[in-house]
Amino acid sequence: MKQAFVFLATGFEEIEALGTVDILRRGGIRVSTVSIMGELKVMGAHNIPVVADFVFEEADFSAVDALILPGGIPGSNHLNTCTRLKELILKKYQEDVILAAICAGPMVLGGLGLLKGRRATCFPNFEPTMIGATATYTGVEQDGNIITCKGPGFVFEFGLAILKSLRDEEIADEVAAALQVNM
Question: pTM for the full model?
Answer without folding.
Answer: 0.97
